[in-house]
Amino acid sequence: MRLEKCWFCSSTIYPGHGIQFVRNDAKIFRFCRSKCHKNFKMKRNPRKVKWTKAYRRLHGKDMTQDSTFEFERKRNRPERYDRNIAENTLKAIKKIDKIRSDRAYDHIKNRLKTGKIQRQKQARKQLEQDIHLVKAPLALAQDSSLHLPKITVNVSQTWTEENQPMEE
Amino acid sequence: MVQYSFKKITVVPNGKDFIDIILSRTQRQTPTVVHKGYAISRLRQFYMRKVKYTQQNFHEKLTAIIDEFPRLDDIHPFYGDLLHVLYNKDHYKLALGQINTARNLISKIAKDYVKLLKYGDSLYRCKSLKVAALGRMCTVIKRIGPSLAYLEQIRQHMARLPSIDPNTRTILICGYPNVGKSSFMNKITRADVDVQPYAFTTKSLFVGHTDYKYLRYQVIDTPGILDRPFEDRNIIEMCSITALAHLRAAVLFFLDISGSCGYSIAQQAALFHSIKSLFMNKPLIIVCNKTDLQPLDRLSEEDMKLVMEMKAEAIKTVMGQGGEPSNEEGVLLTMSTLTQDGVIAVKNAACERLLNQRVELKMKSKKINDCLNRFHVAIPKPRDQKERPPCIPQAVLEAKAKQAAEQEKRKTEKDLEDENGGAGVYSSNLRKNYILANNEWKEDILPEILDGHNVYDFIDPDILLRLEELEREEGLRQAEEEDTEFEMDGNELSPEEQEALAAIRKKKSLLIQQHRIKKSTAESRPTVPRKFDKYREFTTERMGRQLSNMGLDPSMAINRVRSRSRGRKRERSFDRGDDGGEAMDMDVDRPNKMLRVRSRSLSMSRSRSRSRPPSEVVPGEGFKDSAQKVKAHKLAKKSVKKRNKDARRGEADRVIPTLKPKHLFSGKRSIGKTQRR
Q1: Which residues pair with B217 in a beta bridge?
Q2: To probe the interface with B, which of A5, A151, A160 has the most B CB atoms within 10 Å?
Q3: Residue A48 lies in a domain
Q4: Most buried of A38, A79, B337, B458 (most Cβ within 10 A)?
Q5: Distance (Å, rounded) from C-alpha A38 to C-alpha B337?
Q6: Domains and CATH numbers, chain B
């Protein structure tokens, strides 16, 4: 039993899921769900379909080269069983996984960093320029801190006279 | 092989069918559509193609016929003669000749008409030429129709001829009709020839096969021969004569010594003598059949004499071949096919004689030298008298003995299975023969899948080392990350600043929304000057609120506003308070008059939305004064009163303009049923 990768979206195919298509030249295409299968039948190129891993890797959205990928290699020759190695492997898989996902996350974060910086700059600029919409220049002169003004003004209370019947 | 099997000749169609086949093929395989508007060269080409195509097809088919039928001169003379006997060589050749001439004629016709077509100047003319050409070709074929039919008959008959190989070992059985030839044939071979009491049951040659000394012999059963002059013989007898004449075979001449065939021994002897010339160079055996009815010893004197004469002749042939004269018994044999007495002996004798003769001939011929070269058995000359048996080392013998013992002692998996309950109950433990570093690990279960990864892809003897390296790397990387993050953090906005930014953005979006509303309904909205705001939006309270939100103290502004525009507001409120129905235009001098009242209703000038009395004229409505408005109101109510009382549908009541719009009630349903579209 092996977990395969979907040819279209590169997600893992668990046993009991998906469809395999064997072409006349004996190349096998595995799909994780009918969405990928139908896209394939429509002859769409996964490198151009935004939500697939192929696209993301190609356009640098996700991490492509890393030493953690070297650990997972399909071996064609079976190795003789050794309990110690097996134990170590099982423990290692978890750690490697964690490291890999951390790195992937950092990759995306770095990618989004420039956008973040830009947005911060824009926000600051907008704050400086349009502060007049929420804070009068007079108040600004008094307290130039770009915060919302804290003045609460008392409007004089003469409401008692108003409580008369409307119709006269 | 054409030599002895004529089964592969293609069917010869009769005249009509032939024409039909060719013409329909022409119609199907050549283009059919042509118009008179085409270029003349195209028209000519079209018709020429048809003529040529038809001619080619005829040519092909006729050539096939001519080639496949055997040429009587080229095949083995036995077959040549046989075919001549059966079908008459001359007729056969004539028929084939006619086919040939037909072929040539058709070619000539085609050539001529193609030449004519080259100069055809209209569609009609070309078409007529083509029709004429095809017509003539078909007439030719019609004329040779009888020949085709004859050839078809021949073909069918030829296919059923027995496949006799003229060159192999053959035994020929001949004699008078009804002497027991076919019964003998049935006894020694698997052939199932008809055996009946009447003469001429066998009407043609039959072939069977029998084995002797690991060699295969053909046995040919012939129809009976009567004693007649050669010219009088019929076709059936001629078949056997032909076989006798051409096949190099051992001949078994059958003699019915009981006379139950209807012919006496004298007649049979006479026959023998008349055809003995055919027995030249062939091993001859005289077989006396039906000894169960009449044994040979009890023959009459005359018959015995005749038989002895025949035997003498037979011996002479033996002598002629140079064979052993001592083999007298091999020349005259007795048997009975009914009791199967001596049948095998006859067969063996015949086969033996034939074999010997053939071997002798081969030895004398030149080919033997080629064969002899291939036979050579080398036997080393013994040097001395010492015994030299094969040598087997002791170790090998011991190992063999041990292996034999082990085979018996070892317990197989199958035995184990049987002990533990059979095939369905016990499944053998495949792991017990594993070769591992530590035998305790044999029953270990290793998961194949972990966290969405295949475990086998990760297995590596030095995975720990690599993992350590990786973790070191990771530590370094994370340290770097922290540094860069630390640098980056300075630029963020504080929470109050974020609040301010949010407020700014909200305000801005509100402004934009309002602008959009205003923009879109500019044409439908009446343009009323803002100073008459209907909904009492623009009040001092509001202004105060807005200013205080901005951070300014509004009290000064409010006071100023009150002091300035108090009159108008108050007048309005005064009017409101007292009575409606005053003139709408605000005179400037009015405020002076109303100054007194100001103080009282000072408070009333606070902008606060109030409901107006119905008679009060709002500037945007279009009434002259409140009296007019009241009258209008009354008129409106009156006009509607009657209808309302009658409960009739009014303006405000819901109305469906079309009860059955076409698009909902017609057309095919893309989804759903007609009941509920």
Answers
A1: B210
A2: A151
A3: yes
A4: B337
A5: 82
A6: 15-160 (1.20.120.1190), 170-365 (3.40.50.300)
Q: Which member of B460, B500, B611 has the closest CB to residue A127?
A: B500
| Short-list A49, A38, A48, A37, CA closest to A7 | A37
Q: Which residues constitute the domain of residue A6?
A: 1-64
Residue B564 has pLDDT above 60, yes or no: yes
Instruction: Give yes or no for A17 touching B (CB within 8 A).
Output: no
Three-state DSSP class for B207? Answer: strand
What tokens appear for B457 in the block? Answer: 């892809």
- Nearest alpha-carbon partner for B43 in B55, B31, B54: B31
ipTM of the complex: 0.81
Give yes or no for B483 touching A (CB within 8 A).
Answer: no
CB-based contact, B643 to chain A, within 8 Å: no
Inter-chain CB pairs, A–B, below 8 Å: 183
CB contact (8 A) between residue A127 and residue B610: no
pLDDT 10s digits, B152-193: 999 998 888 888 888 888 888 888 888 888 888 888 888 888
Contact B543, B558 (CB under 8 A): yes
Instruction: Report whether pLDDT(B582) > 70.
Output: no
A21 within a domain of the structure (yes/no): yes
**pLDDT tens by residue, B590-621:** 444 444 444 444 445 455 567 888 788 887 78
Token readout for B262 is 């209807």
CATH number, domain at A12?
2.30.170.20
Residue pair B13/B58 in contact by the 8 Å Cβ criterion? no
Count of structural domains within chain A: 2
Asked if B504 has any chain A CB less than 8 Å from its own CB, the reply is yes
Q: How far apart are CA B443 and CA B435, in angstroms?
A: 12
B298 touching A, CB under 8 A? no
Within B118-234, residue ranges assigned H as helices are 123-143, 145-159, 181-188
Q: Which residues of B touch A137 (CB under 8 A)?
A: none
Q: Are B312 and B273 in contact (CB under 8 A)?
A: no
Instruction: Quote the minimal CA–CA distance from A8 to chain B in Å.
Output: 18
CA distance B289 to B88: 35
Are A152 and B493 an interchain contact pair (Cβ–Cβ within 8 Å)?
no
Residue B450 backbone phi and psi in degrees, to 5: -145, 120
Long-range contacts of B430-439 (CB under 8 A, 24+ apart): B434/A81, B435/A80, B436/A80, B436/A81, B436/A82, B437/A80, B437/A82, B438/A83
The three-class DSSP label of residue B677 is: coil
Provide the 10 A C-beta neighbour count for residue B212: 18
Spatial contact of B618 and B534, defined as CB atoms under 8 Å apart: yes
Strand partners, B336: B341
